Amino acid sequence: MPYSGRPGIDDVPVKIVIAGPFGVGKTTMVGALSEIPPLNTEEVLTEAGALVDDLSGVSEKTTTTTAIDFGRLTLPGVVLYLFGAPGQTRYRLLWQDLVRGALGVLVLADTRRIADSYDVMDLVETAGLRYAVAVNDFPDSPDHPGDVLRKVLDLDPATPLVRVDARDPASARGALIALVEHIEEMLP
Questions:
Q1: Can you give the pLDDT at residue 107?
Q2: Are the beta carbons of 97 and 15 closer than 8 angstroms?
Q3: Which residues contact 59 (CB under 8 A, 6 or more apart)?
Q4: Is pTM, for the whole model, over 0.90?
Q5: What long-range pairs does 36-39 form, CB within 8 A, spacing at least 24?
Q6: What SS3 state is found at 66?
Q7: Per-residue pLDDT tens for 66-98?
Q8: Would you tell me how many other CB atoms lie within 10 Å of the CB of residue 153?
Q9: I need a surface site. Which of 8, 32, 79, 81 has the fewest CB within 10 A?
């Protein structure tokens, strides 16, 4: 039977979390990857949020995720359930519930604000989850060589580090494939 692109009864369900700091492109990536209309909980940024949401480097941002993003991508034999995590510290209570049952995390980073990724990577490592890092290329992002980024992010040599355009489905899929291949390598 030819591949239909829809989940089948024998497809293995896999939960993947897309995480990163505020404004890095998680909602955009879930939307680019999802074969179904993605669920998102985007809300307009408010004046009250201006006191806690640092718009440095993302001044054009007008909305933010207030709970999760959700999408689905069906591949031969596997269905990836994609959960985008909110990036602000005030949503950390949601983190433990969101990563429960996840096979891995794709951490999005932004070279304009690379230090903002440290807290997210600490959460992922503390949770003991396998992960890959995808550097989202924005038009005004500084272009640093991979070895420099790897050192600044203090990545283990086995942790995948890729560049991505979160808006582009093929690029986003490439980042996801790097994560899935890393998960497969780490399985017993």
A1: 96
A2: no
A3: none
A4: no
A5: 36/71, 36/72, 38/69, 38/70, 38/71, 39/68, 39/69, 39/70, 39/71
A6: strand
A7: 568 999 999 888 899 999 998 766 667 778 888
A8: 19
A9: 8
Residue with tokens 């005004």: 140
- SS3 of residue 60 by DSSP: coil
Q: Kindly state the tokens that stand for 48.
A: 């009250």
Contacts 24+ apart (CB under 8 A), 4-12: 5/35, 5/74, 6/74, 7/72, 7/74, 7/79, 10/77, 11/74, 11/77, 11/78, 11/79, 12/77, 12/78, 12/79
Q: Residue holding tokens 């490439």? A: 174
- With a cut of 80, say whether residue 27 has pLDDT above it: yes
Q: What is the pLDDT of residues 39-68, one digit of tens each?
A: 876 656 556 555 555 555 555 655 555 568
